[in-house]
Design a protein that fits this description.
alpha/beta, Rossmann fold, 2 domains, six-stranded parallel beta sheet
């Protein structure tokens, strides 16, 4: 993990040399910017004057009055203010975009167009610009003008329908999964568009259209072809997966649970040997994937009866010794204390004047030669970089061609 600082930015991040302008607020769009910033891009976040992005105050928990979510989302970014409802604010942003590689926005579709900043108008200023647009339902289609948050995208994208238990209302996830998943798809699209621009597209930018509903839908695995050819609608399956066994949580003597995933034939045989019941692997009820799926409830009961004889720690040691895929169900406290997460630099103590030091998640994935780095935990107030950026944006806009000519491809 890089331990660069604001005064000593990373020199080998894979996105070093790219300038990304981030507009919009809350989670999905800004998380795309976070991925770019973590891997070395200069990310300039545009906020409205005053309170800035609502994420600065999001969440229930505070430390000395400071939001504890904002540093994760804002780290490594520069922040400027501009009132996009005014001609002056929009003109400042246009000048900034003239020398940018990409724009990330997650406004309601049509907002940029209403501001005179449609893709066509922005490409007239900067043909190389990649425009990443994140929304609830996409830039086209009958739902395009509907506002959309993660909860609705998860619901209409199908993942909430298969979450939870068959006899209970479909619960939401404990995180804004739809926002984060969409941001990862949008980041993927941004990288592909940048590569195509610089390697194949003759320097031409394009639009990346990422929808929360479609991103959630894309996680449904084989649900659509199953429905198409069999009429089967996949249902919630509680703590396991329908017709996949054993792959569930199993109780321990100290009141905990351990996940055991031994649904492949060789892995199931290892589990049977570890349980001291090797004959189960050849029992016709459990001898192959189909049979185990059909008898999952009975098999889970057998395994659960065995696991109740161990504490969670002893069960883990036993299963690890037998080469069985398993794992405890961690809380955030467990993750923070886990030696593996710490050895992999996924628990990072970052110095910051507001917090002294603050533990924040490390950067995944890990790149061997050009790793990401945490340089600072985001500006503490909107407009922290106004003087630096706005003092140069107009001049850079006038010298757009040179700015792009000096920036070689990093992808």
């Amino acid at each position: 993990m890089n331990t660069d600082t604001a005064e000593n930015p990373p020199r080998n991040g894979p996105l070093t040399g790219l300038r990304i302008v981030e507009m919009g607020q809350l989670l999905a769009g800004p998380f795309v910017g976070s991925r770019c910033a973590d891997f070395g891009a200069e990310v300039i976040k545009v906020e409205p004057p005053g309170k800035g992005d609502p994420m600065r105050q999001w969440g229930h928990h505070r430390y000395n009055g400071e939001c504890l979510w904002w540093p994760v989302l804002a780290r490594n970014k520069k922040c400027v203010t501009a009132d996009l409802r005014t001609d002056e604010g929009r003109q400042k942003v246009r000048a900034l975009l003239a020398s940018a590689d990409a724009l990330i926005e997650n406004f309601k579709p049509g907002t940029l167009e209403n501001w005179g900043m449609s893709p066509a108008e922005l490409h007239a200023i900067n043909p190389r610009l990649v425009i990443v647009r994140v929304s609830g339902f996409g830039q086209t289609g009958p739902y395009r003008e509907r506002p959309g948050f993660a909860s609705v995208g998860e619901a209409m994208g199908g993942i909430r329908h298969i979450n939870g238990y068959p006899d209970q209302p479909p619960p939401r996830f404990g995180i804004s999964l739809g926002d984060t998943v969409t941001a990862l798809f949008a980041f993927e699209g941004l990288l592909m568009a940048l590569y195509w621009r610089d390697a194949l597209g003759g320097g031409k930018g394009q639009v990346v259209d990422a929808s929360i509903a479609e991103s959630c839908f894309s996680l449904l695995e084989g649900a659509l072809p199953e429905y198409d050819k069999t009429g089967i609608v996949r249902r919630p399956s509680g703590t396991g997966l329908a017709n996949v066994a054993p792959s569930n949580i199993y109780p321990t003597s100290d009141g905990g649970y351990v996940v055991i995933a031994a649904n492949l034939d060789p892995m199931f045989r290892r589990l049977c040997i570890t349980m001291g019941q090797p004959e189960l692997a050849d029992d016709p009820q459990y001898s192959d994937h189909k049979a185990r799926g059909e008898n999952a409830e009975k098999l889970d009961a057998l395994i659960g009866e065995w696991t109740r004889g161990f504490t969670a720690a002893d069960l883990m040691a036993h299963l690890d010794a037998g080469g069985v895929v398993c794992g405890p169900i961690y809380s955030i406290a467990d993750i923070a204390a886990d030696p593996h997460f710490n050895a992999r630099n996924m628990i990072c103590d970052v110095p910051d004047p507001r917090f002294g030091t603050l533990k924040v998640p490390g950067i995944a994935p890990v790149l061997s030669d050009t790793p990401g780095g945490i340089r600072w935990l985001g500006p503490d107030h909107p407009g922290s970089h106004d003087a630096e950026i706005w003092g140069h944006a107009a001049k850079e806009g006038e010298t757009e061609g040179k700015a792009h000519g000096d920036r070689s491809s990093r992808l």
